[in-house]
Amino acid sequence: MSGTPHSLTLSTGTPIPTLGLGTWQSAPDVVGAAVKAAIKAGYRLIDTATCYQNEEAIGTAIQELIKEGVVKREELFITTKAWTNELAPGKLESALEESLKRLKTDYVDLYLAHMPTAFNDDMTEKIAVSVEEIWKQFDAIHKKGLAKAVGVSNWNEKQIKKALDLNLTPVHVSQVELHLYFPQNEHVAFCKKHNIIVTSYATLGSPGRVDFQLPNGGKLEWAPAPQDMEDQSVKDLAAKHGKTPAQILLRHTLQRGLTMIPKSTNEARIQENHDIFDFQLTHDDMAKLQGTQVLQRLFLQDFMEGHPEDAFADERVKK
């Protein structure tokens, strides 16, 4: 459909797909099939992270598709993220090199600081490293060509501004929780002002977060929260356009000029999430969705509390 972008342009001048496959909670034994299904369905962005513990399976799946002639490496956009222990002084480059080995590639298209907070390996000790010092490490690995673009995740605007004020490699992408019930309007406006692409995670309201298991098998306690896909306006627009509530939420995010990485390991749902380029929400449709009165952050990243670089400290005070 005319006017429907399949990619946006980073400040580096290279394109970033507007829709990617998220892989949080996608176990190694299922993520390979999901990646293959996504790429065959037309996805070109695959998003992972060290702490997802699935980089190796993703790298294997991608290599198999390349060997089969389904896709070329240069047609893909691979994102991974450095976890908190990898943000400690002197650790970032070697951490990225290990990710590259697991992903079986010489470079990633985007490398993100998963959080603004550095910890020791088992996260029992907070390391008081400033966001400026963290960003200096990202500047170095970008200049070495190990990552074509660099960015941040779960950073607030003040922290991003501190990185920008260093006048080093700019922040290319900010990946944040962003959905109908947490639209991040101020963050989006800030990023657009500074030519930073915003990537939404939890675009569908993260209904699967309640199934999350810690490495030790334990589960987290989640506060009750309204479900974006159950919103009456979303349901009404789904009926109007002959689409699913998920497709309405994804299309809404797309038309806000953002990128997104919905997670699924279900082949039919992976295809469904991709089928958002053949219709358009009207101005009135968008206004109806943007008129929601619900404001609900789902991921407060409580482990950051007390860290000098806690991105959400102000929100904790308000609560």
**Estimated radius of gyration:** 19 Å
List unreliable stretches of 5+ residues.
none
CATH homology superfamily name: NADP-dependent oxidoreductase domain
Give the % helix: 25-40%
CATH class: Alpha Beta
CATH topology: TIM Barrel
C-alpha geometry: globular
> SSE string, helix = H, strand = E?
EEEHEHEHEEEHEHEHEHHEHHH
The neighbouring-strand order within the major sheet is 3-4-5-6-9-10-11-12
Oligomer: single chain
**Strand percentage:** 5-15%
Molecular structure report:
Residues 19-290 form the NADP-dependent oxidoreductase domain. This is NADP-dependent oxidoreductase domain-containing protein. The protein has a single domain (16-317), classed as NADP-dependent oxidoreductase domain (TIM Barrel). Helix 6 (185-193) links the parallel strand 10 and strand 11 (197-201). It is 35% helix and 13% strand. It is of the alpha/beta class and 319 residues long. An 8-stranded parallel sheet has the order 3-4-5-6-9-10-11-12. The protein has a two-stranded antiparallel ribbon with strand order 1-2. Strands 7-8 form a two-stranded antiparallel ribbon. It starts with 6 loop residues before the first strand and ends with a helix.
